[in-house]
Amino acid sequence: MLVRRESGDPFRILVVTILSQSCTDIAALKAYRTLEDRIGVTAGALAKADVKEISESIRFAGLHRQKSRALRQLARLVSQEYSGEISQILQKPVEAARVELQGLPKVGPKTADVLLSIYGKPTISVDTHVERVSKRLGLTGPKAKYDQIRCDLMRLFNPDDYSKVPLLFMAHGRKYCKAIRPLCTECPVRQFCPYPANGVND
Fold it and tell me: Exposed end of the chain (fewer CB within 10 Å): N or C?
């Protein structure tokens, strides 16, 4: 995953995770590096930066205007409320940390779970691949939303394996369990899969 390739403190990883929303890893990484070169990826630097300058720096990433405003808002809040560091949030119990992280600009459940997982917290992030594969395999309900899918998967897997689940499901979703024309006849877990009998449609 993109965020695993970027070194730095939790704030930097949070920024690159936000940049990766609605765009490719390559584009997000290019935006992150340009932002680092031009402004610096710290709460203090981004809090003082002009929104247009941030936007221009991250223009490679999708929704760059929206993200530029969110990043400066995030940086200002972190500077004011957390003295520029969010590591203190990660020291809290996982559910309390999830709630607090989601109170930050542009941080939803998935972004919070990605960050927490990187720092060894027992949680599972759910992207489109994880959702699709989970529903087709019948591991969660066909109409389940993010938090329900997360909880269902966490009940099925050992906490030591939580960080591996999104990676494995993502790989399976990209190679076999595709959104359109899934390769069911080639799928290595076809014998255990109820799809399409579970009622999930493309």
Answer: C
